[in-house]
Amino acid sequence: MTVQEYFQKKVNINWQLLKKQKEVLLKMLNSSDTASNFEKGKLRKDEYDTIQGIIYLIDATQDDAVDLGDISAKLVFPDLGTNEGGNKDD
User: Fold this and answer.
1) DSSP per-residue codes, 2-64
2) What is the distance between the alpha carbons of residues 51 and 31, in angstroms, rounded to a whole number?
3) Residue-wise pLDDT tens for the chain (90 aa)?
4) How far apart are CA 90 and CA 75, in angstroms?
5) For residue 11, what pLDDT is reported?
6) How far apart are CA 69 and CA 32, in angstroms?
7) CA atoms 61, 66, 71, 75: torsion sign
8) The domain containing residue 31 runs over which residues?
């Protein structure tokens, strides 16, 4: 199944929840505690990379949903605010 086919099936993703989860991961990754734990060896590089990889996966999913679906960028991206309608034209 192609990405386009996947999104055309109107995959049931809670975009607002995914957006909030991404924000939490970004805050966690960029916090001074995370940096400190990474420097002190409490957070291994592979753990840091894993968190970063999940963020990249969310980014790609959001990009594809907006590019190939009828989902508004405002609905899926944290820095664009919220759009309850979810239509591309909103």
Assistant:
1) -HHHHHHTT----HHHHHHHHHHHHHHHHSHHHHHHHHTTSS-HHHHHHHHHHHHHHHHHHHH
2) 13
3) 666 666 666 667 888 888 889 989 888 888 777 767 777 677 788 888 898 999 999 988 888 888 877 678 888 776 654 443 344 433
4) 10
5) 67
6) 37
7) positive
8) 14-80
Q: Is residue 49 part of a domain?
A: yes
Residue 60 lies in a domain: yes
Q: At residue 14, what are phi and psi to the nearest 5 degrees?
A: -85, 95
pLDDT of residue 10: 61
Q: Is residue 30 part of a domain?
A: yes
Domain count of the fold of the chain? 1
Residue 9 included in any domain: no
